[in-house]
Amino acid sequence: MRKPTGRVLIVGVATLVAAVGSGASAAPGDAAGVVAVFEGNKLDLAQSWGEAEACFVWQEQGVEQCFRTEAEMDETIARLDAVAGSIEPRNRDVLASTCSGYLRLYDATSYGSPVLYLRDQYRWLNLANYGFNQKVSSFKVGPCAADFADYANGGGSWYPWYMTEAYDQSSTMISGWDNDVSSVYIN
Question: Is the full-model pTM beyond 0.90?
Answer without folding.
Answer: no
